[in-house]
């Protein structure tokens, strides 16, 4: 059996165990072990329950074992609610007794300094030695509604039910898991599983993701994450989820520097750069959200309507104001309004005045006397239009608010098309909200919440339609044989060195020679042809133009001679004279547009490529796009087209379009360099890459790299 399958089966057994032991069980619901037992019994877990407590005969009527070794039969899962100093010994006892997996809620491990980290290492050692799996430590347990099993101490389980459904939730944070569960329960959204993982000492996010992908009860997978242990495995699972059509939604902390710090101290995980993470998600079909409740609400909508009926949104409102807000917000969020056919509009004109008989619909402009008849017929016409993929129902207060809500909800349910309700936030909508809950319809009372879900749903289906990038496909291509980069760790490679590396890989660079005297510079220029550019070659000089040492557009020998002297003087003013190694004489290659292309190393995903507008624009607008390397040319093109400066690639103000294909090829090549020299390259910048008109290509005008 492969290790991955073992993990998956481990996760499955933990969520659907035949027997559960609670170590430290008590009847005192003020204690962890008391509440866990209470909820386990209260919610009707049907497997065998074994409370372990040497001081009691029974707990909540269930007979106790004095020690886990006296459990009187196999135990699939043991939950340990003990103080940190007793934990390691108790865990070892469980392993000895043949327990399948332990859930460790205790805190005071890797998240709590060196001593805790050492204690966590002991847990891992026991798990590796014995094969017993561990969830946690520092977790809040799990909820498995289809097995009627609550294995957590959280007060949110005071309800009279566990809400089963089709959303699978994995959360590194226990507190967030139960808060999401609670809020979802209020909205009548049920779960196939809720798992909190804490420090992920043994079983980690991907183990449960893998299980949920294969779990029939799960339609959508939601993850709250702080860090990732094995990014490659996670992304491969995302690809698998995309293949089987299960949406994966993620909220990740560590977006800001402050967030990164808190992630490290919270579950001792390594947080990577959020931009890279979000690029990886985009390329593997994962929807990234910034709010946990929004994630669950989106999951609910995707679970209700897993198939895409098209991206056209029909706005159906009870008022002109609601319709106006609906179309504005939908358009701003990048959603497309459905274009109703002539037939649909003719049908609408039978019940609505002509200005209202289109998308958006405003029920206020009616031609039939019965408002209910008008509402129902208008809804049907709009939902039946082939371009309508979803109806956004915006109900402002209307006469007979409740009755109208019920009629529209029933019509919408009967239509079979996806729909989503927005009702007014005030108490006047309490009745309509109750009706929508009773009918099982999703509703929101804030436009922002609604738009967030609609946007995320749209993003999911768009990514699902996208073909995965060839270059990033799982089967690695034969790596190009490359000579290792020469240089010491920490060395900054000069422009000529990096340009020759680029040239070796087929990226066009400026024709250039190095010259160590003014005379040599002149003969180099004669050879290259005027006009030329002169720049210093100097150790430790990062920004050449900052010290006025880049001389452009030199048209004759006298200018070259003068430039050489000026550059030498400028360098010697800023650096020790020994740093000056001469000048690079290069062809003057005048571009239409300058880009910056770069390679960076991400702590999680390794080599990544970055592209953006060249020069000051990149700093001014932080207009950059990122992708995990390698990427193919098509993907590179998409990245360039995602920049805000993208319109400049097209025909612009009378000039012909630019050579975006050549730029994309250069970016893709850079991504290959990133991979093949990944062990040595910390970063590499081509700044700028000059871009000329279509068919005229690109050229690296400046480049530098840092070794490690
Ligand atoms: P720096 O070290 O300051 O980044 P660069 O070599 O990038 O110096 O030169 C500064 C600017 O000069 C570039 O951004 C580009 O606009 C222009 N430039 C540099 N080299 C050339 C060249 N060979 N042909 C045309 N323009 C160039
Ligand atoms: Mg530069």
Annotate the secondary structure layout.
Blueprint: H1 3-15, E1 19-23, H2 32-42, E2 48-52, E3 58-59, E4 62-63, E5 77-80, H3 84-96, E6 101-104, H4 113-130, E7 133-135, E8 142-144, E9 149-151, E10 164-171, H5 174-186, E11 191-196, H6 205-214, E12 220-225, H7 231-244, E13 248-252, H8 257-267, H9 274-283, E14 286-289, H10 292-304, E15 312-317, H11 320-332, E16 336-337, H12 342-349, E17 361-362, H13 371-384, E18 390-395, H14 401-415, E19 419-423, H15 430-439, E20 443-444, H16 447-465, E21 492-493, H17 495-504, E22 512-515, H18 518-528, E23 532-538, E24 551-554, H19 557-574, E25 580-587, E26 593-602, E27 606-613, H20 616-621, E28 624-628, H21 633-641, H22 660-676, E29 681-691, E30 698-700, E31 703-707
Parallel strand pairs: 1-2, 1-5, 5-6, 6-7, 10-11, 10-12, 12-13, 13-14, 15-16, 15-17, 15-18, 18-19, 19-20
Antiparallel strand pairs: 3-4, 8-9, 8-11, 21-31, 22-25, 23-24, 23-25, 26-27, 26-29, 27-28, 29-30, 29-31
Helix pairs in contact: 1-6, 3-4, 5-10, 6-7, 10-16, 12-13, 13-14, 14-15, 18-19, 21-22
Bound molecules: adenosine-5'-diphosphate (ADP) and magnesium ion.
Adenosine-5'-diphosphate (ADP) binds at residues 510, 533, 535, 543-546, 550, 552, 586, 588-590, 594, 687-688, 701-702.
């Amino acid at each position: 059996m492969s290790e991955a399958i073992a993990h998956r089966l481990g996760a499955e057994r933990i969520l659907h165990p035949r027997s559960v032991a609670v170590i430290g069980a008590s009847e005192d619901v003020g204690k962890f072990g008391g509440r866990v037992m209470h909820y386990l019994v209260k919610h009707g877990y049907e497997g065998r329950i074994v409370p372990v407590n040497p001081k009691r005969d029974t707990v909540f009527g269930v007979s106790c074992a004095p020690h886990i070794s006296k459990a009187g039969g196999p135990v699939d899962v043991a939950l340990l609610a003990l103080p940190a100093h007793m934990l390691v010994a108790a865990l070892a006892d469980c392993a000895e007794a043949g327990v399948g997996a332990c859930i460790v809620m205790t805190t005071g491990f890797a998240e709590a300094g060196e001593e805790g980290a050492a204690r966590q290492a002991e847990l891992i050692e026991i798990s590796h030695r014995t094969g017993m799996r561990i969830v946690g430590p520092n977790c809040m347990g799990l909820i498995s509604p289809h097995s009627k099993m609550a294995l957590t101490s959280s007060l949110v389980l005071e309800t009279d039910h566990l809400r089963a459904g089709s959303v699978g939730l994995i959360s590194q944070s226990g507190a967030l898991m139960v808060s999401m569960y609670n809020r979802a329960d209020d909205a009548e959204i049920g779960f196939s599983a809720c798992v909190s993982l804490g420090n992920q000492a043994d079983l980690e996010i991907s183990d449960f993701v893998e299980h949920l992908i294969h779990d029939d009860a799960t339609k959508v997978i939601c993850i709250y994450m702080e860090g990732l242990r094995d990014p490659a495995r996670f992304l491969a699972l995302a690809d698998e989820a995309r293949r089987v059509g299960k949406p994966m939604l993620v909220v990740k902390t560590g977006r800001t520097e402050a967030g990164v710090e808190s992630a490290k101290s919270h579950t001792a995980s390594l947080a990577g750069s959020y931009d890279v993470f979000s690029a990886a998600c985009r390329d593997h079909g994962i929807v990234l959200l910034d709010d946990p409740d929004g994630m669950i609400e989106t999951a609910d909508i995707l679970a209700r309507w897993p198939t895409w009926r098209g991206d056209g949104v029909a706005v159906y409102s009870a008022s002109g104001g609601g319709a106006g807000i609906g179309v504005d917000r939908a358009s701003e969020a990048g959603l497309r309004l459905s274009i109703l056919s002539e037939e649909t509009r003719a049908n609408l004109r039978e019940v609505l005045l002509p200005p209202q008989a289109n998308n958006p619909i405003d029920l206020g402009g009616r031609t039939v006397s019965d408002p209910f008849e008008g509402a129902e017929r208008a809804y049907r016409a709009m939902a039946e239009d082939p371009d309508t993929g979803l109806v956004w129902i915006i109900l402002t207060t209307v006469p007979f608010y409740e009755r109208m809500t019920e009629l529209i909800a029933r019509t919408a349910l009967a239509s079979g098309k996806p729909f989503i309700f927005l009702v007014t936030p005030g108490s006047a909508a309490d009745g309509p909200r109750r009706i929508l809950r009773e009918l099982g319809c999703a509703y929101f009372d804030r436009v922002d919440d609604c738009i967030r879900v609609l946007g995320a749903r749209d993003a999911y289906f768009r990514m699902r339609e996208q073909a995965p990038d060839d270059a990033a496909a799982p089967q690695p291509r034969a790596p190009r044989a490359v000579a290792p980069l020469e240089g010491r760790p920490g060395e900054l490679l000069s422009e000529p060195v990096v340009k020759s590396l680029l040239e070796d890989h087929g990226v066009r660079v400026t024709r250039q020679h190095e010259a160590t005297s003014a005379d040599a510079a002149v003969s180099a220029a004669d050879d290259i042809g005027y006009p030329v550019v002169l720049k210093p070659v100097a150790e430790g000089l990062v920004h050449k133009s900052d010290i006025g040492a880049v001389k452009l557009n030199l048209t004759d020998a006298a200018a070259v001679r003068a430039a050489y002297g000026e550059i030498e003087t400028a360098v010697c003013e800023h650096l020790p004279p020994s740093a000056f190694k001469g000048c690079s004489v290069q062809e003057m290659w005048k571009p239409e547009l300058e880009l910056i292309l770069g390679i960076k190393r991400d702590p999680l995903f390794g080599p990544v490529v970055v592209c953006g507008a060249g020069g000051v624009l990149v700093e001014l607008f932080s207009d950059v796009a990122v992708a995990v390397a390698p990427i193919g040319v098509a993907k590179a093109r998409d990245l360039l087209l995602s920049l805000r400066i993208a319109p400049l690639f097209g025909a612009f103000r009378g000039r012909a379009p630019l050579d975006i294909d050549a730029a994309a090829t250069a970016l893709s090549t850079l991504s290959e360099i990133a991979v093949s020299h990944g062990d040595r390259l910390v970063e590499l910048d081509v700044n700028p890459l000059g871009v000329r008109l279509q068919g005229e290509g690109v050229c690296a005008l400046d480049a530098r790299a840092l070794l490690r």
